[in-house]
Amino acid sequence: MTRIVHYTRCPVATATGVALEQGFFDAEFPSGGPVEFRNIKELGKDRMIKSHFDHHLDNSVREGGAIPPIWARSRSADTVLLGLTFVRDSLAFLVRADSDIHSFADIAGKRCSLPLHPKLLTDFMRANTERGWLCALAEHAMKPDDVVFTDVIIDNDFKDTANPTVGKESRQPFEAKMFDHELEALFNGEVDAIFTKNAQPARLLRLYGDRLRCIYDLLDAKVDDHMINGNPRIITISRNVVEEDPELVTRYLQVLLRGARYAAEHKEETARIWAGEIGVDVEDVYNTYRGDFHTTVWPSLSDETLRRLRVQIDFLVEKGYLDNDVDIDAWAEPEFLARAYAREKLSAAA
């Protein structure tokens, strides 16, 4: 009997996206074999979006932004943490080109957008944004009450953005528009500045460069932890798979390592793949990520990466995004990743 494992991922830079595009999943788990990996979208958008956030389904894997899997685990989701990646992507603050805000210090007294998504199971966008503002304020020796946080209510359930159908899965290009509602609020004068992240700042500046200005990017932060925002990205799997077929877990991670290795060896192709995964143009990838960005999706459970995860969890607990803390030691099972690296004859990522 074939075991069907459903995958989902976020529109961010992942080894999963590369492995899917290059056919590594199909090669390791061919159709009709004892194990098949399928897009969770085949279950319907409603079931897809629910499990993408709460990971309640057995026989499922997820790679993507940190907040949903942390939130799910804090609510007793029966998942196992298999690996983490840390990709330094843009964390940028945008104002209108005709604004009197010319540097981040000028933000004092201004209305700073905080998105509010009533339809989301967990408002990861608001959490990302709040942390972005607080870290940028700290970088400039400013306090939260130096600005006016302003709610922007957004009627978006992210069914078309989570787990995008791209690459070999689709002939239609995918365009991520998750910041367009806040952009409209900025242009309409409802707020004075917005926070954007990933490759979206580059996309927005490409589309609206004559109307927008970037006043700061946390990629330039002096405190490294201030770049922890939706990072580390998290690879999780349903515990039933770990208990019922541990060999499958190792093979799954081997596929991700092959994706990471391909990415590290093919910068231009990786930029193209990630542009499709993120929903932007290739130039936006190059204008967002710095240096050898294509080498950054090696899964790791190193002490430093786990520390960064702790920083993210502590923020979510402190600001009330989680009702319960998360015990990382009880969540992570590093032996699978270590075995996968050994089988691929690779040194574990630091």
The gist of it:
With 350 residues, the protein is an alpha/beta fold.
Strand tally: 10
Give the strand content: 15-25%
Uncertain parts: none
Q: How would you write the strand order of the largest sheet?
A: 2-1-3-10-4
Discrete helix count: 14
The major pleated sheet works out as: 5 strands, mixed
Query: Structural class of the secondary structure composition?
Result: alpha/beta
Mean pLDDT: 94
N→C terminal distance: 38 Å
Order of helix and strand elements from N to C terminus = EHHEHEHEEEHEHEHEEHHHHHHH
Q: Specify the overall morphology.
A: globular
- Helix content range of the residues, please? 25-40%
Rg over alpha carbons:
20 Å
Describe the structure.
The chain is an alpha/beta fold and 350 residues long. It is 39% helix and 17% strand. It has 14 helices and 10 strands. It has helices at 15-21, 24-28, 45-54, 67-74, 124-139, 180-187, 200-208, 239-244, 246-265, 267-278, 282-286, 303-318, 328-331, 335-343; strands at 3-9, 35-39, 60-64, 79-85, 91-96, 111-116, 148-153, 194-197, 212-217, 233-238. The strands form 3 sheets. Strands 2-1-3-10-4 form a 5-stranded mixed β-sheet, sandwiched between helices. Strands 8-5-9 form a 3-stranded antiparallel β-sheet, with helices on both faces. Strands 6-7 form a two-stranded parallel ribbon. Strand 6 (111-116), helix 5 and strand 7 form a beta-alpha-beta unit. Helix 1 packs across helix 9 and helix 9 crosses helix 14. The longest helix has 20 residues, at 246-265. The radius of gyration is 20 Å and the shape is globular. The model has no long low-confidence stretch (mean pLDDT 94).
